From TrEMBL:
<protein>
    <submittedName>
        <fullName>DUF3097 domain-containing protein</fullName>
    </submittedName>
</protein>
<dbReference type="InterPro" id="IPR053883">
    <property type="entry name" value="DUF3097_N"/>
</dbReference>
<feature type="domain" description="DUF3097">
    <location>
        <begin position="111"/>
        <end position="276"/>
    </location>
</feature>
<dbReference type="Pfam" id="PF22845">
    <property type="entry name" value="DUF3097_N"/>
</dbReference>
<dbReference type="InterPro" id="IPR021447">
    <property type="entry name" value="DUF3097_C"/>
</dbReference>
<dbReference type="Pfam" id="PF11296">
    <property type="entry name" value="DUF3097_C"/>
</dbReference>
<feature type="domain" description="DUF3097">
    <location>
        <begin position="25"/>
        <end position="82"/>
    </location>
</feature>
Length: 278
């Protein structure tokens, strides 16, 4: 039989009896939280002077004071400033590789990675730039692959001058696939690797959720693809400057490899391994 009078109410811990303990969580970059009062949900972008900046999936930024009033996966937490180690995360680059702090850029290798256009080059630089500088790999855009054979003949790849080529829309039966097959039969086949992703344009390699979509819209063949995408998103697209701004808007939503589709990630990693093989 329980003796309900036997417990000492002044024993250690009596004040905490029945109290719900809300755990603390360091506000590390990319942590997704919800602010209870407003319902705003976003990823941590930065923490400055006890203020955390969150970015939602539409790119909208909001500032909130650190402390209680946040949810992670529906459970309350108290956000606190990250320690130095946490602020640095796991010391990873945007590609997920282990970072080498303060490492000087390596002198450029003779080997190169070719991509089709400026947007491809900018996306590769944003995610893999730190890795490429450490390895001394230069990325060049070649304005499409129609003249790839001529470009390779001028570059003259060798075992000391390897070339990796990233191609858009590399699917069976496409023009790009025929070009890749010709390179594989050509005189530089041993020192050239052509890989590609299935997307019509590199824009599609960014996960659609990063621009507030569930899937990228289907664009009729009669409409230029980038114009069709901008139209579907309600963005201006009458001039080339509009297209350039649209791309910068999309690129700005990319923070790490996690914002890209696996079909691109594997291809770029393959190219880097190929051109850095000793």
């Amino acid at each position: 039989m329980d003796d309900r009078y036997s417990a000492d109410v002044l024993s250690p811990g009596w004040r905490d009896a029945g109290r719900i303990i809300i755990p603390t969580q360091e506000a590390v970059r990319d942590l997704v939280v919800e602010e209870i009062a407003t319902g705003f949900c976003g990823a941590v972008i930065r923490v400055e002077k006890k203020i955390v900046t969150l970015e939602d999936r539409h790119g909208k930024l909001r500032l909130f004071p650190l402390g209680s009033g946040f949810l992670i996966d529906g459970r309350p937490v108290t956000l606190i400033a990250p320690t130095m180690a946490a602020a640095l995360g796991r010391v990873r680059t945007a590609s997920g590789s282990t970072a080498v702090p303060n490492a000087p850029a390596r002198v450029a290798r003779a080997s190169r990675i070719f991509v089709e256009g400026r947007h491809d080059a900018e996306l590769v630089e944003k995610v893999w730039g730190a890795d490429l500088r450490l390895e001394g790999v230069v990325v060049e855009y070649i304005e499409g692959v129609d003249n790839l054979d001529a470009i390779l003949r001028e570059f003259r790849p060798s075992s000391a001058r390897r070339v990796g080529v990233l191609v858009d829309h590399l699917v069976p039966g496409s023009k790009e696939s025929r070009i890749a097959e010709a390179v594989a039969r050509g005189p530089f086949a041993a020192n050239v690797l052509v890989v590609g992703h299935p997307f019509v344009d590199v824009w599609q390699s960014v996960k659609p959720a990063r621009v507030g979509l569930n899937v990228w819209p289907e664009v009729p063949r009669s409409i230029e693809w980038k114009h069709g995408i901008c139209d579907a998103l309600g963005w201006p697209h009458e001039e080339q400057a509009d297209i350039a701004r649209a791309w910068q808007r999309i690129l700005g939503r990319v923070r790490t490899f996690a914002d890209l589709e696996p079909q691109l990630l594997g291809r770029v990693e393959h190219l880097i391994d190929f051109v850095t093989a000793e």
